[in-house]
Amino acid sequence: MKNKITQLFGIKYPIVQGGMVWNSGYKLASAVSNAGGLGLIGAGSMHPEVLREHIQKCKKATDKPFGVNVPMLYPEIQKIMGILVDEGIKIVFTSAGNPKTWTSFLQSKGIIVAHVVSSVKFALKAQVAGVDVVVAEGFEAGGHNGREETTTFTLIPMVKEKIKIPLIAAGGIATGRGMLAAMVLGADGVQMGSRFVASEESSAHQNFKEVVVEAEDGDTQLTLKELTPVRLLKGQFLDDVRSLYQTNPTKEELKELLGRGRAKKGMFEGDLENGELEIGQVAGLIHKVMPASDIVKEIIEEFEIVKNSIIKLV
After folding, report:
1. Bridge-based pairing state of the strands 230-233 and 143-144
2. Contacts of 73 (CB under 8 A, 6+ apart)
3. Mean pLDDT calculated for residue range 96-108
């Protein structure tokens, strides 16, 4: 399957595995890359030397291209960028910050830069900053999200209309059918996070994986907009957040409830009562924990079947 994304990244399929905190270690990234997609190591939950270790292990586990996702609000960002250069990383996805800050530096080191946005405005800013690829993420996505609540179905064609560089769609995509729909709307490829949470190689706790595959329509909610919007799976922590909102809380009160380490506690340690459980709305379409290679295979097979059925229809 040759297009702008597969040629740019040197991969077989235009599928990118989201670099999710507490879920995306070297085992998942290498498995997705070996299956023909682009695996991403999620630097957002790693100390610098832990990231270095994951990169080195990923190099041993795959000879295919892989990348690193870096939230630019990371407190040790300079160390992280130094490690990426030292380890010869060729693909970096940046998020949660101004793309101007690091794009030219990374590109000067021969690194392809993709930047994650949630609106047309930020897509245009990313293009002006010189990024190679824009990842437009709709309101359906798991984890931290845009405040605008623009859905993927409307965001992708609006961004496509305004930018000239390659576009990857993210948010609410977990199947071959969804992948085809995103590409019909103008995307050159897709990024999937939630689907790969429920993979055997994901570093998420088994407790978290099980509640993801049990999730149904309406079991997530975007909340904590006053801080950083995040989509959470129903559970005790989300109930606590909803209860606090009934009191018209201040930002300080919300921060106090959020505390520290909630995401690690929920997704990595499996504390379903006190942890933060970040997942996308598309969890309702995820019914089984599978090897990452089988997930990629299933997506591509469904993509081809649906594409051919549409060709026959028209």
Report:
1. antiparallel
2. 96, 97
3. 95
Q: What are the two backbone dihedrals, phi and then psi, of residue 278, each rounded to the nearest 5 degrees?
A: -90, 125
Distance set, CA 15 to CA 7, 156, 177 (Å):
12, 16, 13
DSSP state of 290: B
Q: Decide: 269 and 275 in contact? Cβ < 8 Å.
A: yes
The radius of gyration computed from the CA coordinates of the chain, to the nearest angstrom, equals 18
Q: Which segments within 163-261 are labelled E, that is strand? A: 167-170, 189-192, 220-223, 230-233
Domains of the chain: 4-203+285-313 (3.20.20.70), 206-282 (no CATH)
Token digits of residue 58: 């990923």
Helix (H, G, I), strand (E, B) or coil at 112: strand
77 in Cβ contact with 98 (< 8 Å): no
pTM summary value = 0.95
Q: What is the pLDDT of residues 242-295, one digit of tens each?
A: 999 999 999 999 999 988 889 999 999 999 999 999 999 999 999 999 999 999
